[in-house]
Write a sequence for this structure.
């Protein structure tokens, strides 16, 4: 599979963590030694941004942010444990 499609799949997984195959898309690219650092950095950057948003906003999107934060934390653990 082409790298561009794999990156797009990870982006989609982060935006829709509950979709089927989301975790698989992240771990497939994250377990590839060539791209591990890129994927982990991307996830950490997204996690920090989402946590900042969660702390500063008090709207109805907090549940969606919490779901994405949990997904990202799980994805980081999954690619780190490989």
């Amino acid at each position: 599979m082409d790298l561009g499609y794999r990156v797009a799949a990870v982006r989609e997984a982060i935006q829709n963590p509950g979709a089927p195959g989301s975790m698989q898309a992240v771990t497939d690219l994250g377990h590839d030694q060539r791209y591990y650092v890129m994927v982990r950095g991307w996830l950490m950057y997204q996690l920090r941004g989402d946590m900042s948003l969660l702390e500063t906003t008090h709207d109805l999107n907090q549940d969606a942010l919490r779901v994405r934060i949990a997904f990202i934390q799980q994805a980081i653990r999954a690619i780190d444990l490989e």
Notes: The CA atoms of residues 44 and 64 lie 18 Å apart. The longest helix spans residues 36-56. Residues 3-80 form one domain.
